[in-house]
Amino acid sequence: MTPATRRRARTIRMMWSVIDASVWFAAIWVATWLRLDLSIPSPFVRGALVFAVAAVILHMVVGYLIGPYAVGHIRGSFEEIIDLSVTVLTVGAGLFLWSFVARPVVLPRGVPVSAAALAIVLMFALRFVVRTARSRAAKARRGERRAIIMGAGDAGRRLMRNLVADPSSGIVPVALLDDDKSKSRLRVEGARVRGTREQLREVAEKYGADLLVLALPNADAALLRELAARADDAGIEVLSLPPLKEIMGGRPTSHDLRDLDVADL
Hints:
This protein is of the alpha/beta class and 265 residues long. The chain has 7 helices and 7 strands, in the order H-H-H-H-E-H-E-E-E-H-E-H-E-E. Helix 1 runs antiparallel to helix 2, helix 1 packs across helix 4 (111-140) and helix 3 runs antiparallel to helix 4.
């Protein structure tokens, strides 16, 4: 990663920490307003302000120590959601304990709990909006290869997220295939599982795909030969992911894709 890329990543994490902290600030006021029958009596205004500022500070501190701002998560990924949830729950628990032991009572004790629930819903919603917009932007890119991802397992999902997040990859995922029928309704980054290997040709024709990406790091040679033959019949090229143990950090990107060789087959 270049210094410019690292600076950009830090800036983005800082921006999201400010956004999430602002969500906490607003959530405290909204939760107080709802708890006190849509009005905040003057005795509780100072308490709400103090708790809102405390929530902002606590969220920033916890978020940078153990939360989503300490590492470079893919926006809206499972890992980021887990870290964000831990951060919000930690802050909410701290505020609840403070409200419970504070004398005199400066804020209704249910406010921190309601505010934490509201804050986490809003934070998730913001990330969903960003991911949706990013997926649509990826689909709108022109002059790039349109790819079908074979395999909607862990490797396929990670690859999908990285391809969509990286405009320089030169590859736009348009559909997924998986032989597991239980994944037939799965959607990843705006693209859906559209069938099994038997539907490769018709899916390629329907979505104008010119590339099949095999996200099957543990596939045997017989399966790879069959998929290569189906891709040849559909008139599309084949690229494959190596085993995850060979991928730096276990996060496959377009740079990890390679042609099938004799050793694979």
